[in-house]
Amino acid sequence: MPGITLVGLGPGDPAKLTREAWDVLVSTKEVWLRTNQHPTVAGLPPELIIHSFDELYEKGESFDEVYAAIVDKVLEMGSLPMGVVYAVPGDPFVAEATCPDIAQRARNLGLPLKIVSGVSFLEPVFAALGLDPYPRLVLTDAIELSQAHVPEFPPDMPVLIAQIYSRMVAAEVKMTLNSVYPDEHPVRLVHAAGTKDEIIEDVQLYEIDRSEHIGLLTVLYVPPLGAGTSFEAFQEIVAHLRAPNGCPWDREQTHESLRPHLMGESYEALAAMDSGDPAEMSEEFGDLLLQIVLNAQIASEEGEFNMADVLKGIYDKIIRRHPHVFGDVKLDGVQGVLKNWEKLKADERSTSLNPDKGLLDGVPLALPALAQAQEYQDRAARVGFDWKEVSGVLDKIAEEIQEVREVTNEQELIDELGDLFFALVNLARWKKVDAEFALRSTSKRFKSRFNFVEQGAKKQGRKLSDMSIDEMETLWQEAKRQP
Question: Is the whole model's pTM more than 0.85, yes or no?
Fold first, then answer.
């Protein structure tokens, strides 16, 4: 009779085959294995004819390609009069790429399907670790994790990583984990759990690819990094602040009341960036993040949007605006990227609720004047509205200086000084200098030197207002010589 029987072979010890699986295997003439590289195979009925798909692993260029070929072959054999018994390590539906696809397609084709569950690798691993997976545990795949840049799970949860089948995979997994976890984070390697060869190694994260025992039955357990290290935990604590049993001040806040706090934290984050102090930057970025999450929580309570909407929106936007990274678009360097960026944004504006919105309309009016001017110029330049050479910018500055000299009233002075500032910002842009940062740096330097002058006057027992400009200039020059 045609049909497919999916059988779980258990974690590796033949004694852990289920009674149902054994009955199926002794009642059939032949079985197809996804791989015969599994300890249970040695304990199968001796008269059973065994085939395997191991040769596909040698020919295939990727696991996806191998699994697709196996699925097609099993479905083909399942449609023949004799049907097929297909057996896999562990359980057919735990960390098994082929069986869920086979089952779904068999049902769609109307093929008879029987599923014989097995003891998965999980139960012996939990026993070896003395670990109860409840109330929470992340299960993830080493191959998928090794191809990521950062782990896609909260670091304040325990994690079990399957398929650490080689040192190379272990090294790649380690690199991904290192983006969040320190080298010295304690982890546990579990080898051949549930078999006579079971080994548990307690090591530090940086050592995992040095183990001599890594093989097809190796699993990595990563304990939690610590409370408060995940974005989800941060969302929860902010939501708690807004809850009935939370903080009276936080509960009273609105988008409007938080505006000055968001602006203030933004400037403090900029100041930290200017200082170059990593600890200060880390703290100020946290304060800024609090404002974003708090506003998102308020919006969620009002039914406007939630944090998932915020994240999904920017996620989709990044992918949409980077077709040269996430698609097949070919662009020539940074300028090609910026030009295509503006084209994509123009397309978005044309299909938005406000199609008349212009190229410069997206620049926040609340930006500091220098930053706003530079952003206007950047956007205009991306579509070709720019000087051909920097000499044109320098000539424009000279022209504006002359016009400042020739003003005849206050309004003209305001206008011409604005034009001069704008031209200077354009020069900064051409020289790839952040105009806002440059002026802030100069102001910071001026403050430090002027403080030196003040302290110098105090040391002389004098007030600045009593000193001549020449005396202050002497102190100023001394300040400039300070490291």
Answer: no
